[in-house]
Design a protein that fits this description.
This protein is of the alpha+beta class. The protein has five helices and six strands; from the N terminus they run ββαβαβαββαα. The two termini are 12 Å apart.
Length: 131
């Protein structure tokens, strides 16, 4: 399945499990100097409550060198920063990586087009960890 975009959300398939895909991203972030602000294990928290949920994890990540200019240009951007990537398994057991498209973020917060590459890193990261 190919990358799809709907309502500003990019969904990219991964050829790895949720945990493997998350670990691959964590390694890339560590090597690049980006910051992993947090990991929310939605399915793990559901399990603690006795609920079943397919593997679903949210990573909160960023780089102040890229995010600060966005927030200076358009302060409302701070509501979507740090950036987030969702790793989840669908009903067919295929793993997906979801994130807000850079164009969607630019449209929502009206920051200058020259700052679009500051959010485009998600596309590169998703492609890098999915294969």
């Amino acid at each position: 399945m190919a990358r799809t975009i709907a309502n500003g959300i990019v969904n990219e398939p991964s050829s790895h499990s949720v945990d493997e895909t998350v670990e691959r991203l964590k390694a890339i972030l560590q090597a690049s100097g980006a910051v992993l602000f947090g990991l929310i294990d939605h399915s793990g928290e559901a399990e603690k409550m006795g609920l079943e949920m397919k593997p679903t994890k949210l990573l909160i990540l960023g780089n102040p060198k890229a995010g600060t200019p966005l927030m200076l240009a358009s302060p409302s951007t701070a509501i979507d920063l740090p950036l987030k990537m969702l790793f989840w398994e669908d009903a067919t057991k295929k793993v997906r990586i979801s994130y807000n498209s850079p164009e969607y973020l630019q449209e929502q917060h009206v920051f200058p087009e020259e700052l679009l590459p500051n959010t485009s890193v998600l596309r590169k990261l998703a492609s890098g960890v999915a294969q």
